[in-house]
Amino acid sequence: MTWVAWRQQRTETLITVGILALLAALLLPTGLDMASTYHRNGLAACLGPSASLSCRQAIDDFGARFDSLNSLIAWFTLVPGLIGILLAAPFVLQLEHGTYRLDWTQSITRRRWISGKLGLAIVVGLAASLLFTLLTTWWRTPLVHLEGRMDASVFDSEGTVVFAYTLFGLGLALAAGAVWRRAVPALIVGFTGYFAGRVFVDTWLRQRFIAPVRATWSASGPSPANYRHAWVISEYRSDKVGHPIAPLGACTGSTGAKRIIDPSCIMEKGTGYMHAVYEPASRFWALQGIETAVFGSVALALILFAAVWTNRRAA
Question: CA-CA to 196 of 20 to 30 Å: which in 32, 101, 152, 308?
Fold first, then answer.
């Protein structure tokens, strides 16, 4: 049964390997170049909160050089879902064409056939997720040292959430395919649901997993210790107790991909305080665990639904 399942899953597995190979072909040379630039410019000595002006300029130059490439890599967060949806295709295709009936006449029970097909898809998906995570984590190492990993494009490509994303895409396509028994529509519905779910969590739900920190500090003094590399949900000029005063307007500029606030400008505009709502970098693994549990539990429920529905309704 395992050999038969592998033969039926082989094409999609090879496509998955091809996708990862293309990613590696892009990430390996550019990652080596970025790591070399990081060490050659001595940026490791600029990681402290009180970096010199020359250090800040070197960091800005580094970010500007690799900003466009980093923005491109950010779109790779869709890859885990695509892989999961792709690996669901053999199962749905057999339901659509009715070839599962032939398998069930070869001394293979329904449950064994379903568990073999779905089990292989899950194993391949998790293995691909591991390789994807290792590649993107290694590539972003210099940027993470400088900017942290709480930004959505980094958070979504590291840690444990990638495994849950892959299973979520797989589960959506399997559930839609089990009910619909049409491969192409099921895969489209799966990707649409995957994209919508990711956007919903990234833009609304994630910041509600753990109550964010709220802090007000003098613009002429240092920011809170846990503010460095934090995920900033909102930030604005305020009075002493954190009430907003006015938009930052001319006091806000940008260098590369980062937003810069000029404290001296803020003082000239009539207030010396800043207020921010943020998730500290120390909560990275806590947020990863919660999000992995959310997507993982939904994915397992969808996969179980597809298995039970197929076992009871397929004829």
Answer: 308
